[in-house]
Design brief:
The complex is a heterodimer of chains A (100) and B (316).
Chain A lengths: L3 E11 L3 H10 L6 E5 L1 E3 L2 E3 L8 E8 L1 H15 L5 E10 L6
Antiparallel strand pairs in A: 1-5, 1-6, 2-5, 3-4
Chain B lengths: L4 H14 L8 H24 L3 H27 L4 H12 L3 H13 L8 H9 L1 H10 L3 H9 L4 H10 L1 H21 L3 H6 L1 H51 L4 H12 L5 H9 L5 H29 L3
Helix pairs in contact in B: 1-12, 2-6, 2-10, 2-12, 3-4, 3-6, 3-7, 3-12, 4-7, 4-15, 5-13, 5-15, 6-13, 7-14, 12-13, 12-15, 13-15
The chains are: A alpha+beta (100), B mainly alpha (316).
Chain lengths: 100, 316
C-alpha cells in the first residue's frame, strides 16, 4: 500500500475560538479535522479542564504542506497575540492521499 | 447564623480542593448538571409567568433591564481608578450579569426561613443575564485599541451579539421559560419530580463541583491578592444596595427584594467570561474570573445572602 507525504497541523488553544477556527477551516477548504478537549499547563496558566470557561481544545488536521503553513500563519496573526495558542507542524505519511 | 445545608456541599468541595484531594467530578457531569439547573430555573420562571397577566410584570421587567445596564456603567468609572480600560469593562460586565447558582442558593435560603418571594424573580434572573454584557462590549470599545484586537480576531458586532444572545445559559434559561409558559402547570406535572423536586439535590452536587473549582482559583488570589479581594468583596456589598433600591421601587415583598439584591450583587462566571473573552481578548481573564468566581461567589454564599437579608429588613 502506498503512503503519501502530508503535513499535520496540531494546535492547542482556547475553547472559545472553536467556532472561529472551524469557520476558517471551511473557508480554506480544509477537508477534515479532529477536535478534542484538552487540559494542561502553559504560559497562560494551568487548565484543569473541569470548568467550562477556561477549557482548552486540541485540534489536528492533515493537508498539504503549503496550505498547512499558510493556515498556521493566519491563525497566528489573528489569535496569537491575545489568546493561548500553540501550533506545530509534523510531517506524516497517510494512506489514501486523495482524502486530504 | 446557621449555614444552609446546600452551602455545606460547597464547603466540602472547597476543603477537598484546598487539601489537594483527588476528588474530581467528570467535566461531562458538570456540563449536564449546569444544563439541568438552567432548564429547571427557566421552567420554574415560566410556570410562574403562566399564572399571571404579562402586563402586570412588564413594568418590573423593564426596570430590571435598566438595572442590568446601569450596574456596569456605575462600576466602570470606579474600576478605572486602578484598572486598564479593557479589564474595567470586562469586570463591569461580569458583575452586571448574574450567577444562576447564587440565585438558587438564595432561593434555598429564603425557603428554609419560610420567607415568600414573587415568582417573577426568576424572570428577572433571565433578563439580567444579557444587558450588562452588551454594555460591557460597548465600554470596552470606547477607545479604538480594544476594538482593534477583537477585529483582528474576526470578532465583529455580529459575532459578539450572537455570543451574548445565544450563549448556552441564555438559550437554556429562555428555553425553559418558554417551555414552562407554554406547557403550564398541568403540562409540566409529569416532569415535576425531575425538574422541581430534584432541583435541590442536583444543586448540592453542582455546589460540590463549584467548591473544587473555586479552590483551584485561589492561586490567582496569591498573584493579584489585595486588588481582587477588594473587588470581590467590596463590589457585591455596594451593588446589593442597587438591587435593594430597585426592589423597593418595584414594590417587591422582603423576599423579592433580597433576591433582587442577591442578583445585583452576584457576578456571572459562565456567560460573561466566554462573551468577554471574545469581545476584549486583551483583558486578563484571570483577574475577572478570580474576582467573580474566586471571591464573590463564595462570599455571597457564605456571608452575602444573610447580609443582604439584614440590609433589606432595615426597610420593612
Amino acid at each position: 500500500m502506498a503512503f503519501y507525504p502530508k503535513s499535520m497541523l496540531t494546535l492547542v488553544t482556547e475553547a472559545v475560538l472553536e467556532n472561529d477556527l472551524v469557520e476558517l477551516f471551511n473557508e480554506r477548504k480544509i477537508r477534515g479535522w479532529t477536535i478534542v478537549a484538552a487540559r494542561g499547563k502553559g504560559a497562560h496558566g494551568e487548565k484543569r479542564g473541569n470548568f467550562d470557561a477556561n477549557e482548552n481544545i486540541q485540534i489536528e488536521l492533515i493537508t498539504d504542506t503549503a496550505s498547512a503553513e499558510a493556515l498556521a500563519e493566519e491563525i497566528m496573526q489573528r489569535f496569537g497575540e491575545h489568546f493561548a495558542l500553540v501550533q506545530w507542524l509534523s510531517e506524516v505519511r497517510v494512506l489514501r492521499g486523495e482524502k486530504f | 447564623m446557621q449555614i444552609d445545608p446546600v452551602v455545606l456541599f460547597f464547603l466540602l468541595g472547597l476543603a477537598a480542593g484546598l487539601a489537594k484531594s483527588d476528588l474530581k467530578l467528570p467535566s461531562a457531569l458538570y456540563d449536564t448538571l449546569s444544563v439541568f439547573l438552567l432548564l429547571a430555573i427557566g421552567i420554574k420562571g415560566g410556570l410562574a409567568l403562566a399564572k399571571q397577566p404579562i402586563m402586570d410584570v412588564l413594568p418590573q421587567a423593564m426596570l430590571v433591564l435598566l438595572m442590568g445596564a446601569i450596574i456596569p456603567l456605575l462600576l466602570y468609572p470606579l474600576l478605572r481608578i486602578r484598572l486598564s480600560q479593557v479589564d474595567a469593562a470586562s469586570i463591569a460586565a461580569h458583575y452586571g450579569s448574574t450567577s444562576v447558582v447564587t440565585f438558587a442558593v438564595c432561593v434555598a435560603y429564603l425557603s428554609r426561613l419560610n420567607i415568600s418571594y414573587e415568582s417573577q424573580t426568576t424572570l428577572f434572573l433571565v433578563l439580567l443575564e444579557m444587558p450588562a454584557l452588551v454594555v460591557g462590549v460597548i465600554l470596552s470599545r470606547l477607545k479604538g485599541s480594544a476594538a482593534g484586537a477583537a477585529k483582528q480576531a474576526g470578532h465583529g458586532w455580529g459575532k459578539l451579539l450572537h455570543e451574548v444572545l445565544l450563549g448556552k445559559s441564555v438559550v437554556l434559561l429562555i428555553g425553559g421559560l418558554l417551555i414552562g409558559l407554554i406547557a403550564g402547570p398541568q403540562g409540566i406535572q409529569p416532569l415535576d419530580r425531575m425538574y422541581l423536586d430534584l432541583f435541590k439535590p442536583v444543586l448540592t452536587l453542582f455546589l460540590l463541583e463549584m467548591g473544587l473549582v473555586v479552590a483551584g482559583k485561589f492561586g490567582i488570589l496569591r498573584q493579584h491578592g489585595a486588588l481582587v479581594l477588594a473587588i470581590g468583596v467590596g463590589v457585591p456589598l455596594a451593588l446589593s444596595w442597587i438591587g435593594i433600591g430597585f426592589g423597593l421601587m418595584m414594590g417587591l415583598s422582603p423576599g423579592g427584594v433580597v433576591l433582587l439584591a442577591t442578583l445585583a450583587a452576584s457576578a456571572s462566571y459562565i456567560a460573561a467570561p466566554a462573551a468577554m473573552r471574545m469581545a476584549v481578548p486583551q483583558a486578563n481573564p484571570a483577574l475577572s474570573l478570580g474576582a467573580a468566581l474566586g471571591v464573590t461567589f463564595p462570599f455571597n454564599l457564605l456571608v452575602g445572602i444573610p447580609v443582604y437579608h439584614q440590609f433589606t429588613m432595615l426597610f420593612f
